[in-house]
Amino acid sequence: MMRSIIAAAVLALTLTGVTATAQQQPDIPKILAEIRAKDTGQLAVSEEDGRFLRLLIAATKRKRALEIGGASGYSAIWMGQAMRETGGKLVTIEYDAARARELAANIQRAGLTDVVQVVSGDAFAQIPKLPGTFDFVFLDAWKKDYKRFLDLVYPRLDKGGLFTAHNVVNKRNEMGDFLDAIQRNPALWTSIVSPSGEGISLSYKK
Prior knowledge:
The structure is a single chain. The N and C termini lie far apart (70 Å). The chain has eight helices and seven strands, in the order αααβαβαβαβαβαββ. The chain has helices at 2-24, 28-38, 47-59, 74-86, 97-109, 123-126, 146-153, 176-184; strands spanning 64-68, 89-94, 116-120, 134-139, 157-166, 188-193, 200-205. Strands 3-2-1-4-5-7-6 form a seven-stranded mixed β-sheet, sandwiched between helices. The chain has 206 residues and is of the alpha/beta class. The model is unreliable at 5-22 (pLDDT under 50).
């Protein structure tokens, strides 16, 4: 009888622990939906592009990623999920101080603070302060600065690394020098994909 009571008590405690753990898991789809609903400035990538970035990072096993232009964290959460799978880390930089605070709060809500580092400030000033190299870069900042960011980051892109950039279809007229650079560089294999209508360039460093 006593053994049955003890077994029942252990089972009850185990089930309680499982339930508590489940309750503690962030509802990432809900968090993503809330971010998009508040994105009146349309700064976030599309859901299709977010899913593509997550898949791309996970499938190619990227470990050291950099995002330039984090906005409110929508794309960082997609990429952070992939980094959790690969064991990697993402650094995301946001220029606007208020958005950077929102970005950090959303990363915390999503339970990704262990894999995503938020940096607030001017990326041109912050990137030189970051240690090491990168095997994945996602650029989604002011379009006229794309070429300058490429020039800044390219020397620190690993061989075999991917440099990706957003809005290369719907805003291509704002980044002609950047598109010319990634397509003419003999050390890059470049292709443009469009999971949504915005477009993402993929440049592989040989």
